[in-house]
Amino acid sequence: MNSSKNTVKRLLSGFKPYKMQLAAALLLAVLNVAATLYAPIVTGQAIDLIVDKGLVFFKGLVPLLVELAVTIVVVAVSQYFMTLFLNKVTFSALRDLRDQAFDNLSRLPLSYIDSHPKGDIISRLISDTDQISDGLILGFAQLFTGVVTIIGTLVFMLTINVKIALIVVLLTPLSLFVAHYISKSTFKFFKEQTAARGDFTSFVEEMTGNQKTVKAFAHEDEAEEDFEALNLKLQKVSTRAIFFSSLTNPSTRFVNGLVYAAVGIFGALSVISGHFSVGKLSCFLTYANQYTKPFNEISGVVTELTGAVACARRVFELIDERPEKNDSHLPNLKHVDGSLTAEKVFFSYDRKRPLIEDFSLNVKSGQRIAIVGPTGCGKTTFINLLMRFYEPDSGRLTISGTPAADVTRSSVRRSFGMVLQETWLKTGTVRENIAYGKPDADFSEIEAAAKAAHCDSFIKRLPQGYDTVISDETGAVSAGQKQLICIARIMLSLPPMLILDEATSSIDTRTELLIQEAFGKMMRGRTSFIIAHRLSTVRNADCIIVMNSGHIIEQGTHSQLMRRKGFYAKLYNSQFEK
Amino acid sequence: MLKLFGYLKNYRLEAVLGPLGKLLEAIFELIVPIVMARIIDIGIANNDKPYIYKMGGLLVLLGVLGLAASLTAQYFAAKAAVGFGTQLRSALFKHINSLSHSEIDKLGSATLVTRMTVDINAAQQGVNMLLRLFLRAPFIVVGAVIMAFAVSVRLTLIFLVFTPLIWAVIWIVTKRTVPMYKSIQKSLDKTTLIVGESISGVRVIRAFSRQADERANFKNSTKRLQDKQLAAGREAAVMSPLTYVFVNIAVILLIWFGGKSVYSGSITQGEVIELVNYMTQILLSLIRLAELIQLLTKAQASSRRICEVFEIKTTVSDKGNKPVKPVRNAPAVVFRNVSFAYSGSERHALEGITFRADKGETIGIIGGTGCGKSTLVNLITRFYDTSEGEVLINGVNVKKYPFEQLRSGIGIVPQKAVLFKGTVRENMQWRKQDASDSEIERALKISQAYDFVHEKPEGLSYRIEQGGRNLSGGQRQRLTIARALTGSPQILILDDSASALDLATDAALRRAIAKNTSGMTVFIVSQRVSSIRNADRILVLDDGKLVGQGTHKKLLADCGVYREICSSQLSEKEAAHDE
């Protein structure tokens, strides 16, 4: 409870830059409610002047109708501007929140991003923030106007007629009670429905999303059977949930009707006994109709509010996550000659499971280093450490004589060109994608890089050539072609050191050969780290590092290692076994 | 939308009872102001207390009846709408199951999922609201005008002027804001895309130190989003005040001219109140109607997307095919001059392919990216139909087989390792539903998956999460191989299915398959020479054409493309190394 209070407090503090608009909105809300409640009084007074045949006081009627007109204008204008201010506050605060969250996201260490599902982070930034604006901010406005309306109505009613006002006051909790009861039981049914819908959706995602596999195994009939079962379950709970949730309106309408009838009867009786007028009765009838509305809204708002607070907490969690240490005061890495040493490096993702232990390595400028070993031996982790995506638990990495930890991360990363097995393209044109590492490159440079990566010819065949919009998901370019574009990206930025992690795994061997040649040209004089499954790619390295469970177990050239007849030789020979 | 109404067929009664109940409720509601007018004009005017009690009782009764009518209506509407959704889901799922790979390629499976879930939900919601409101709201508007007419013909004129006016305001604002909300949704999608990309591309972004640009990009996007939201908000903010103004101008006119009528004695004081009440009822109903229309346009769009799927008919069908008898002593698979082009593409993906695979043979298929290797094996299972030529299995054209018979004889391991939520055992029983544990274990052993499955305490009952998230890529791949092997198919197709395995595992896998699959015809699609060099026959594809077939040795001697592939992967000595 305390923590949700803090969350709300913090959310409210997000409104600070817009406090003038917020204050204006609240003031206008009070004005709006007051005028809205005043209108029926004037109408009632006007009706009291229309008594019977020949008994209509037109002289008194004119100023009253003018007053009514003014009141109406006040209601309309105040409501319009209140909405505008509220929108301004809501959407600005929402945007601030999103910007803050994204800002921090872009500074978080890789460990956060690697360990959190992508969908989860996206929903914090998109749907959770939406929920906050819908639930909390609009809800807050509704709550505020609701409370003001209730208080205002009470005051107005009490000043007109205490007895009848009391009837209304006593009957309205009934509506509140009904609404509460319905929303409570509805919640249960909705939860059931959400669960059933979740099961249904994930089944459809599996079966429809993998329709080709389903077909391959002629599994359609079984799938349909399972589907029917889930569909029937969904039907059962959905009917219930939809029915119960649709009870709120009729039920509150009913309670409203009761209040209306009660006011009608007692009002009429009071008129007869002379304490009341027909105009006041009509005014009360209007109030009776309006009075229960805010109660219903408030009970709806409460559920929304709790939901919004939960969402806000998730967004704040992301904002509060500790970013990578600020290193802007450190100097940049300069004069990279390509030499690199690792001294007694220890690292693990999970303290309970040590991964890299006592890892030392000495790489001379311009050397070509290949890293091989079974899955999970720590090859990719080593890359993560080189790029400073993760920091070693202990030990030291030195690049060109400078300890990596003493310079900025960005300068270390920029000194490497990296091509990963998992290609990543940004949604944008081919041109933008190739120039990602060097945004100011001119077209001839881009084209030259594409040619070097052997992707120029297929790019030219795309519908808009270099201006074709591609993305990670488009089927327009194949996995191999994506990899070629990623290689072109590196060919353009030409950093002093290279990391190729299965960089050509999706490319056929003949193209690969051409790429290798291009790499060969590029790697001349550049230090490079190569990870590959295909040992043919590895064979020509100056030094092959064989890793197994976080340790370097062998190290040397291809022929040295083959002569040792150790792990590497076994691995190498296994590809020719029958 | 109308097209889909057929799915209400089994819920005809409910679909009629729902709106009828709402209509009744509306009638009761329209009577209320009359009763109140009577209380004022008769009860109060004559000091008749019993009459007031009687009429008050009538008001309560009307409320009760209204509640009863409304509850019945909601119940039947919910039942009919959900029934509609359920039937529609079944039909659509069945229809999607009948589509072939060609159609799925065209639509994309992601959209199919959205249409099955989000779109059908929207359509269901649309039907529900339609059943509840399409009679009620217009009825109240028309009813209120008629009631007003009964009170005073002259004053009805005010209704006839202001009702369309209020409707016009609602209609225009809605018309103008709907496209704005669509554009907001687009901006939101764009923002979502930026977040998604900045997560999946985090390594590349940081490698190039482009975080600041990504941040600027995101800020731009949220700024655009905010601008659009504010613009839409400005439009929408007009509606409520403006309708309020119109209704109350009508009320002022009603009081003024009503006062004149009362003065001349043609109507009473109570009737003036009654008219004012009707005016407010009209406003409320019109607002509901506008909401309904908004919802219906959404449902309409969803319905259109659903209909689109229904309109696509499968191009590959086994309708009317009876189980076939294999021709005795026929080769397992024969391709006779087969050409194939993907629909919408002019270029042939395969051209003039002819080869045979005898029972028990192992066929290797090799070639560069996009040369048509996967396409070729997809024709064996008849995922696509050939453009020219024919594919025979056991001497019979694949087009003559029922799918069930054809595909149950084939074990296929697709490139993408897809596993389903459920236990390992359930996943293994996909090809053969009644496969025993020992059969499964045998398959697991061949596919090198036995050890890691048995390291799990649950063994075969180990639960695989959706998409196989709780397994590594290599483990998933080995399980898909085991799945295809379970129940010993006649034909086994491995479509580049060892790419996630390290070399040692890959070698062990090939050894086990060679040893344990005698009598099984095996197709191995690969880019690695080492994976296929021991095949009985190797098919070399280049740009959709079969440029060589034979053993490794023969191809080394007479196929230039093959030699080139080999020399890119193996040293000369290794290439000649024949064991």
Structural notes for this entry:
The complex is a heterodimer of chains A (578) and B (579). Chain A has 578 residues and is of the alpha/beta class. Chain A has helices at 2-13, 19-48, 58-105, 110-115, 118-160, 162-209, 211-216, 220-245, 248-273, 278-320, 379-386, 409-414, 430-434, 443-452, 456-461, 479-493, 509-523, 535-538, 558-564, 567-574; strands at residues 50-52, 55-56, 340-347, 356-363, 368-372, 394-399, 402-403, 416-419, 428-429, 469-470, 497-501, 527-531, 543-548, 551-556. Among the domains of chain A are: 1-160, ABC transporter transmembrane region fold; 340-574, P-loop containing nucleotide triphosphate hydrolases (Rossmann fold, 3-Layer(aba) Sandwich), CATH 3.40.50. Chain A has a 6-stranded mixed sheet with strand order 8-11-12-5-13-14, sandwiched between helices. In chain A, strands 4-3-6-7 form a 4-stranded antiparallel sheet, covered by helices on one side. Chain B is of the alpha/beta class. In chain B, the strands form 3 sheets. In chain B, strands 6-9-10-3-11-12 form a 6-stranded mixed sheet, with helices on both faces. In chain B, strand 4 and strand 5 (396-397) form a beta hairpin. In chain B, helix 1 (12-44) runs antiparallel to helix 10, helix 5 (136-151) packs antiparallel against helix 10 and helix 6 runs parallel beside helix 10. The two termini of chain B are 67 Å apart. The relative contact order of chain B is 0.08. Classes of the chains: A alpha/beta (578), B alpha/beta (579). At the A-B interface, helix 2, strand 1, strand 2, helix 3 and helix 5 of A face helix 1, helix 2, helix 4, helix 6 and helix 7 of B.
